Amino acid sequence: MVETRKVQVTGGSTYTVSIPKDWATDNGVSAGSEVAFYPEGDSLFMTPRTGEERTEGTLDIGDLDGEELIRAVMTMYVSGFDIIALESTRITTDQRRTIRQATQSLVGLEVLEETRDRVVIRDLLDSSELSINNAVTRMRLIALSMLEDAVRALVDLDADLARDVIQRDDDVDRLWMVVSRIFRATLRSPRAAEELGVTREVCFDYQSAARQLERIADHATKIAHLSLEFEEPVPDDVAAALDELHDDASAVTDAAMDALFLDESDESTRRANEARESVQGIDGHARSIDELLRELDPTRAQLLGLVVDSLSRSADYGGNIAETALQKAAPTP
């Protein structure tokens, strides 16, 4: 239910407005309490100020183990808890090992306390020191280098390079978790957005782009896995076509990311539209490679067809980033 209040003038120069009593009671606000105001465009957000800025969450891990336990820790991390207490009647050795594995896969986490029935994890990073822009930029560099090296590993039958690409996917996943954590923090608190120095809408745009970059990294990993199944070199004409398709797909993502980071709306719109339009040409290029694959034996043709599909999908994800850049550059209602 929306409540309205009239703005009044006190002392001849100070504007005042009352706050709903129910809201004040629910949030521990009373006479003498401090509240903080955060301006955002034509809106003004007010939140209670508390002495404890770090949030603690408790999770009963019960019989959780393996991947389920890892996902549970990751979910608590992305949800924004600074202190995560994992509890059970008795935490097993395997559960402790899994918790440490999950902790090491996330940026800034460290095991703070361990007892028979409780493991406490704490985020050591100061949210004000995090930069969603830097995290997304780093994701861009890693994801596109993974895609390039995955194709090179396939063409050169370089198993070591392929395994290196697969390992780098963990770095992208860690950054994706950081971006998701930052974004969710800005949804909960205007203070988080103020500390970042960007609006919540821009945080949403960055988070949307990061999701596409994470998918590109997944397809690079898929290509790297496929390359390990090849024992004979890829035919020269197919290898050249794959290199060209990769170059086009990476160019789409690069152009889209450049458009996303631009502050000048007209130039951002121009670059984003160019990136979107180039995706259609890539689809035609992929179909021409499929024609080349028909001359190969069915097993190799199927594997290479999966590589072509991953490169085409990577271009599509670049097109999605271009769409996000267009939305970011559009006038704000």
UniProtKB/TrEMBL annotation:
It comes from the Archaea. GO terms for molecular function: DNA binding. InterPro entries: PhoU (IPR028366), PhoU-like_sf (IPR038078), PhoU_dom (IPR026022), SpoVT-AbrB_dom (IPR007159). SUPFAM superfamilies: PhoU-like (SSF109755). Pfam families: MazE_antitoxin, PhoU. Residues 9-54 form the SpoVT-AbrB domain. This is Phosphate uptake regulator PhoU. It comes from Haloplanus rallus.
